[in-house]
Amino acid sequence: MDYQLTDEQRIIVDTMRKFVREEILPLEDKLDPDAGDLEPEDKARLVAKVKDMGFFGFGIPAEYGGPDVDTTTMTLMAIEMAQHRAGLYNPCYGVFGGAGLAQLFEATEEQKEKYLYPTLDGKLTTFFGLTEPSGGSDPARAIQTRAVRDGDDWVLNGSKIFISGADRADFGLLFARTDAEKGRGGVTCFIVDTDTPGFYVRRVVHTLRSTRYATEIQIENMRVPHKNILGEVNKGFSIANERLSRQRIPYAAGCIGVAIKAQEMAIEYCKIRHTFGGPLASRQSIQWMIVDNELDIRTARYLCLDAAQKADRGEEFRTEAAMAKLVGSEAGGRVVDRAMQIFGGYGMTKDFPFERWYREMRIRRVGEGPSEVQRLVIARDLIGGAFH
Amino acid sequence: MGIRLDKKFQPLTAENLKDVHGHLGVYHLAEPDGAIYYIGYAGGRSLFGLNGELKRELQARDGRPALFRFEVNAQYLSRHEELLMLHVADHGELPERNRRELNHKLGRLTPA
Fold it and tell me: What is the predicted ipTM?
């Protein structure tokens, strides 16, 4: 396997790195350490700049107006875009745009007109409503939100938790059980408008992450037209599953980007910080931390690019994506932890980004499928057969 | 923990602020009749945290009486956002100063 970048990829990576360092970091220095967004005028200026660069619409297929880059190049870009304080959950503060809900590319033309195109234009915002209080790691079985057919409508009742952005969204994808007897074959995906009577955002769910919070949703006798089903009745789980697999690659890339930045800062600091008459860099204990960081970063990067390249070749990449997510999120956490140790007391303060990365990186081992589920996916593919 | 910040208000005085330390957190400011006129937070860039923010607010009142209550909270941004949404849910709109300062789309919350 050869990970030598093409000339085009090298130019893109260099451009992204320059953008983060020259455009994002200076603005970020003036924001609250937990900030999730830029000032509106700064954001508008940078969005215009990204459009001029031809990179706007990160993750959007070229036929819908996104940049014409493959998964490997997008992964390389995602690694660069994450290399700042807010980079894990809001890379470059969203100035590169995004695909929103990629599942909508499979929608009917009528659904695309109403939901997809306005979303790509930035006129509508969305949420992804899968996880329920009964569990998120096994959605096929845990989904208890019910949808019952009534004429041309479906009537939905239930609740969802850990749903990001539902309070601000115009619409979202909501998964509900339409056949109680069929397990994963009894789940349907509905496109729901958030101004529909019966849709309530009940509370903010506070977590380690102070920005981009999650919410809890309650659905009470909400009527959704049959035409708002995404895909087919009882085929919703495959839509969710596809998203979960594909999302694992950029999810891992973000962890790697932050780890690279933490390592860069740790190396720089250990050379200038002196203790007991010499720089930290001269201490074997510190050297080993730096070496262990590098091993973690390179292992995670290798697995992440391997998954991306398989996706680009059109091969099955579920196992590789699970490995990338598992190793990326766990290695990223270790790297940030060691960097904090090297920085000592300063590493714990909000003067530096480590404490935010430390909190947010901890979420990454649970979000988008916890490490244990990734191992389950990998084991299932290695050994074969579904486990019960 | 209830989602509302419903601790008892105290007069916003230098004496009362002696018991407020430099923590991260959120606060309500109200007119003497209890009408909330500002929902604020002390974040990572606040000098002396809640104490510093509330002292600044006290000075800005320029002798006019006011009430305050606060909550120490490391997740000050999401809690602040929640308090803003709760205020809209309860009163139909934000306090005027918050309305002026808000530079993003506020979410909708319908507490049970």
Answer: 0.89
Distance from CA of A129 to the nearest CA of B (A): 16
- Residues of A involved in catalysis: 368
Is residue A74 within 8 A of residue A251, CB to CB? The reply is no
Neighbour tally for A344: CB within 10 Å: 12
pLDDT tens digits along B98-110: 999 998 899 999 9
Residue A283, domain member (yes or no): yes
| Last residue of one domain, picked from the residues A186, A211, A230 | A230
Which domain-ending residue is among A70, A102, A134?
A102
B18 in contact with A at a CB cutoff of 8 Å?
no
Q: How many domains are contained in chain A? A: 3
Q: Which of chain B's residues have a Cβ under 8 Å away from the Cβ of A219?
A: none
Domain that holds residue A274: 238-383
> How near does any CA of chain B get to the CA of A202, in Å?
5
CATH of residue A375: 1.20.140.10
With b for 16 or more beta-carbon neighbours within 10 A and e for fewer, the A241-280 pattern comes to: eebbbbbbbbbbbbbbbbbbbbbebbbebbeeeeeeeeeb
Which residues in chain B touch residue A203, judged by CB atoms under 8 angstroms apart? 3, 82, 109, 111
Average pLDDT over residues A240-257: 85
Same domain? A180 vs A308? no
The mean predicted confidence, pLDDT, of chain B is 95
Count of CB pairs separated by less than 8 Å, A with B: 72
pLDDT tens digits along A280-318: 999 999 999 999 999 999 999 999 999 999 999 999 999
In chain A, what percentage of residues exceed pLDDT 70?
Answer: 97
